[in-house]
Amino acid sequence: MADQLHDEPFAVEVTSSEVAFDGAVWDIRRESFRYGDADVVREFVDHTGAVAVLALDDEDRVLLIQQYRHPIRERDWELPAGLLDIAGEDPAIAARRELAEEADLEAAELHLLTDFYTTPGGSNESIRIYLARGLRPTADAFARSEEEADIRIEWIPLEDAVAGVLGGRFHNSILMLGVLSASAAKASGWSTLRRV
Questions:
Q1: Active site residue: 101, 106, 148, 159, which one?
Q2: What are phi and psi of 144, to 5 degrees?
Q3: 4, 63, 140, 176 — which has fewest CB within 10 A?
Q4: Closest to 108 (Cα-Cα) out of 175, 65, 55, 161
Q5: pLDDT for the residue 3
Q6: What's the pLDDT score for residue 65?
Q7: What is the spatial distance between Cα 18 and Cα 179, in angstroms, rounded to a whole number?
Q8: What CATH fold (topology level) applies to the domain 50-187?
Q9: How far, in Å, CA of 137 to CA of 103, rounded?
């Protein structure tokens, strides 16, 4: 029974849709729609979507990056990640680009670990997390600026990353979901990985 449950698309009549706030990175959209007998108005972050990469080396160590995130005023630990801000770009290509830009790495293998909506009540942001293996350095190092200028890189065993998540030391949702998904996938003999 449980394997038959899945999220389902559901169409509603959208009666109006407008940009309520035109932001530098993403917008706030206001939409009116009919739901049953009710007229409903919702405002939400209209997001481009994003990708993230859990890079796992031959010793089952996970690549973590630390960078400053202004809204939370912290340098949090994360996975390499970035926006799908190039129109029509394949998410797998974007994932490879982010791995190169943030960690100066290329991957021989890329598999889909999981994808999720960050906050479906307030944003249409969708994030796809890939597992990258067969890692090697890029030919050239990338020049980084702004919050990425002082990225710190650490490699830690997957089990230690899981312990960090469960112990409350890591709070980044993408890192948390990626690490726990990778751990579950590894425990299943990687049978849960999806093709790119």
A1: 148
A2: -115, 150
A3: 4
A4: 55
A5: 80
A6: 95
A7: 37
A8: Nucleoside Triphosphate Pyrophosphohydrolase (3.90.79)
A9: 9
The residue type of 154 is E
Whole-number pLDDT of residue 142 = 63
Task: Provide the 10 A C-beta neighbour count for residue 168.
Answer: 7
Q: What is the dihedral of CA 135, 138, 143, 147, to 10 degrees?
A: -10
Are the C-beta atoms of 57 and 85 separated by less than 8 Å?
Answer: no
Does the annotation count 148 as an active-site position? yes
Listed as ranges, residues in the chain with pLDDT below 50 are none
Q: What is the pTM of this model?
A: 0.90
- pLDDT score recorded for residue 87: 86
The domain ranges of the chain are 7-45, 50-187
Residue 116 tokens, joined: 């999720």
What single string gives the DSSP state of each residue in the chain?
A: -GGG--------EEEEEEEEE--SS-EEEEEEEEETTEEEEEEEEE---EEEEEEB-TTSEEEEEEEEEGGGTEEEEE-SEEE--STT--HHHHHHHHHHHHH-EEEEEEEEEEEEES-TTTB--EEEEEEEEEEEE-SSPPP--GGGTT-EEEEEEHHHHHHHHHTTS---HHHHHHHHHHHHHHHTTTTT-B--
User: Which amino acid makes up residue 111?
Assistant: H
Q: Are 88 and 102 in contact (CB under 8 A)?
A: no
Give per-residue pLDDT as tens, 87-144.
889 999 999 999 999 999 999 999 999 999 999 999 999 999 999 999 999 987 766 5
